[in-house]
Amino acid sequence: MKLYTRTGDKGMTSVIGGRLAKSDIRVKAYGTLDELNSFVGLTIAKLHEPKFDDIKNELIKIQHELFDCGGDLSAISKGYTFKAKEEIITFLEERIDVYIKEAPELERFILPGGTEASSYIHVCRTIARRGEREIVELQQSEEIHPVVLKYVNRLSDYFFAIARVVNSRSGLKDVEYERSAVVFRGGKRKENNNE
């Protein structure tokens, strides 16, 4: 098998059902999910200890789901069957609820950081947010599979939750942003600030 094909040398790329410019917002959106998937892989490599096995296994599951979402975003063929299903969103919500209870209660914004693994998870969170913005931009001009947008939105919340748990299990306290108002009640963000 040849790794290079030369078919993209003029700035076009193949998608499911045709070809698009590599600068197309659809290509940017699924490219960002690919970037996110790579950072999730890097994060997994940093979670060495058995106390993180549950998170590690969930992140491997998420890598498969990101591939599914990327494929769904890259499809412009009308006959394509979407892979991402609603249950992947439900799973994230259930895990977020568990992790919110495990981490210390939160009232203010925190600085991204802590352990090396937690810092990588915060990078994943911000890449997910960028991916979400690009998917929203794509949605303004093209139809997309709605599960993908919901999933990526929930995924950034999941990353926030596990970043805090990784710090907590490592015996590190999150550092509060010193000029933050009280924005969380009972560990959850106040209603009027929800994304």
TrEMBL record:
<keyword id="KW-0169">Cobalamin biosynthesis</keyword>
<dbReference type="InterPro" id="IPR036451">
    <property type="entry name" value="CblAdoTrfase-like_sf"/>
</dbReference>
<dbReference type="GO" id="GO:0008817">
    <property type="term" value="F:corrinoid adenosyltransferase activity"/>
</dbReference>
<keyword id="KW-0067">ATP-binding</keyword>
<dbReference type="Pfam" id="PF01923">
    <property type="entry name" value="Cob_adeno_trans"/>
</dbReference>
<comment type="similarity">
    <text>Belongs to the Cob(I)alamin adenosyltransferase family.</text>
</comment>
<comment type="pathway">
    <text>Cofactor biosynthesis; adenosylcobalamin biosynthesis; adenosylcobalamin from cob(II)yrinate a,c-diamide: step 2/7.</text>
</comment>
<dbReference type="InterPro" id="IPR016030">
    <property type="entry name" value="CblAdoTrfase-like"/>
</dbReference>
<protein>
    <recommendedName>
        <fullName>Corrinoid adenosyltransferase</fullName>
        <ecNumber>2.5.1.17</ecNumber>
    </recommendedName>
</protein>
<dbReference type="GO" id="GO:0009236">
    <property type="term" value="P:cobalamin biosynthetic process"/>
</dbReference>
<keyword id="KW-0547">Nucleotide-binding</keyword>
<comment type="subunit">
    <text>Homotrimer.</text>
</comment>
<dbReference type="InterPro" id="IPR029499">
    <property type="entry name" value="PduO-typ"/>
</dbReference>
<dbReference type="GO" id="GO:0005524">
    <property type="term" value="F:ATP binding"/>
</dbReference>
<keyword id="KW-0808">Transferase</keyword>
<feature type="domain" description="Cobalamin adenosyltransferase-like">
    <location>
        <begin position="3"/>
        <end position="166"/>
    </location>
</feature>
